[in-house]
Structures are given as structure tokens and as C-alpha cells.
Design goal:
Radius of gyration: 31 Å
Helix content: 55-70%
Number of strands: 4
Oligomer: single chain
Distance between the termini: 74 Å
Strand order of the largest sheet: 1-2
Strand content: under 5%
Shape: elongated
Length: 257
């Protein structure tokens, strides 16, 4: 019986190897010399990186096997483009590329439709971003990307925002071992503040002090959105009378509140 065995795409994750820095360097040198076996060893020896990244996307409703395969594509791209001369850890270079590959996959499968022009700008920005990552071995800024594209920074930001995958209000943003904090906990609600709630109570109490006709006029005008002429026709009085009664009722309510 295997303990803690988890298989993803037929890979037993409990038996994945961990490569030392010295072994990684040796394999990269062999791969650059044309040794395809070394490349396979590098891929297999870094699958734990893919596993660590896909955990960030567990709550997207996607199959883990699919995310793992897409993450492996990002890992392979990172291995093929990694430069030993940049004096950067492979994981530092690879993780953003794996994340980028998974995000591209999620965007392409996004049920929210984005215009082709915006999508084209966003994909060009992502291509430039990948090129700058390869060039500088770090995450480029939006300003650097917009400079390469010769486009205003705001257009690039807008395009990239448009293709972001939606998140759930119940996605956890922080967990310290106790109760998690969700996205919805970080969103303010200006419509349901205490002051608005108390104001609603005051309005209802003031309405109770009005005559039945005044209540009806205000209800038709401000709750049902009818014009003074429509109110006049409904209750059988003139528009001028509706106007006078409405003003008197509002003035009375202001005093009560």
C-alpha cells in the first residue's frame, strides 16, 4: 500500500526527485551540449515547481490534470530558455513562466467575451512581457511593456485587465491557520452602511405620521417612479394639487427627521 500517493496525469507525485543546484547546473550544461536525456531529467526533476504553482489555482474549477499539463508547458519553455550566465536561480526564472502559461490557458477558456482588438493588445503585451523576462530575468514593469509596444500605458493596463479571469467572492486571500479571509471580506458596501440603515428607519417612521393621501402620493412618486401627471390621473386630482401635497408631505417629513 502506497502512503501519501497522489497521481496527476499518471505521475506519482510522492516519488518526484529533488535536484541539487550542482546537479541542475550539470544537467543544463549537458543539455546545451545536445544531450536530450539531460533535458528530460531537468523536466522530471522540476515537476515539483509545477505542483507548487497549480495549488494557487485550485479554486478555479479546472481539472488539476489540465492545469498540470499546461504548467509543464511553461516549465519546458523555462528550461529551454534559461541562461546559466544570468546568475539567477532557475526556480525564480521558471515560476513566473509557469504562472503565465496557466493564466493564458485560463484566459483562453474564459466564459466572459472580450473584444478582439483588446485581446490582441493584451496578447502582444504578454509576448513582450515574456521577451523582457528572457532578456532581464525579472518581471518587467507595465511602463517597460508599453514602451516596447509604443502604446500608452493606460491602454496596456486596460487590455490586460480585460482578459483577467474572474475570481469568486469566496476565494481566500489570506489564511493564518485560523479562519480564512475571503475576497468578499475586503469589499466595502457603501449602500449598506449604518448611516443609510438608520436613515431608512427614520424615513419609514416619518412616513407613518403622514396622511393616507400623502403616503400614497410619495409612494407613487418615489417608490414607483411615476410622474406628477400620472399620480394625478391615478388618484383623481389635478397635477397642481399633487405638487402642493407632495411639497407639504416632504416638508413635514424633514421636520420629523
Amino acid at each position: 500500500m502506497l502512503v501519501n500517493k497522489v497521481e496527476i496525469c499518471g505521475v506519482n507525485t510522492s516519488k518526484l526527485p529533488v535536484l541539487t543546484a550542482a546537479k541542475m547546473r550539470e544537467l543544463f550544461l549537458r543539455m546545451k551540449g545536445g544531450d536530450r536525456t539531460a533535458r528530460e531529467q531537468l523536466i522530471h526533476g522540476n515537476l515539483r515547481l509545477v505542483l507548487s504553482v497549480i495549488q494557487r489555482f485550485n479554486n478555479r474549477g479546472e481539472y488539476v490534470d489540465d492545469l498540470f499539463q499546461v504548467g509543464c508547458i511553461g516549465l519546458i519553455k523555462a528550461i529551454d530558455n534559461f541562461d546559466l550566465g544570468q546568475n539567477v536561480k532557475f526556480s525564480t526564472y521558471a515560476v513566473p513562466m509557469i504562472i503565465g502559461e496557466i493564466r493564458r490557458y485560463l484566459r483562453d477558456n474564459n466564459p466572459i467575451r472580450v473584444s478582439r482588438s483588446l485581446r490582441d493588445v493584451a496578447y502582444k503585451a504578454l509576448q513582450v512581457r515574456d521577451g523582457l523576462v528572457n532578456k532581464y530575468s525579472r518581471e518587467p514593469t507595465i511602463t517597460e511593456i508599453s514602451r516596447e509596444l509604443k502604446m500608452p500605458r493606460e491602454e496596456v493596463v486596460f487590455a490586460l485587465d480585460a482578459i483577467q479571469e474572474p475570481i469568486s467572492l469566496f476565494d481566500p486571500v489570506y489564511h493564518d491557520g485560523g479562519d480564512p479571509i475571503y475576497v468578499m471580506d475586503q469589499i466595502g458596501d457603501e449602500k449598506n452602511q449604518d448611516s443609510n440603515w438608520l436613515e431608512g428607519i427614520s424615513i419609514r417612521e416619518a412616513m407613518e405620521k403622514l396622511t393616507e393621501r400623502e403616503k400614497l402620493i410619495l409612494s407613487l412618486r418615489f417608490y414607483e417612479g411615476k410622474t406628477q401627471m400620472e399620480v394625478a390621473d391615478e388618484i383623481g386630482i389635478s397635477q397642481a394639487q399633487v405638487s402642493r401635497l407632495e411639497k407639504a408631505a416632504l416638508g413635514h417629513m424633514r421636520k420629523l427627521m
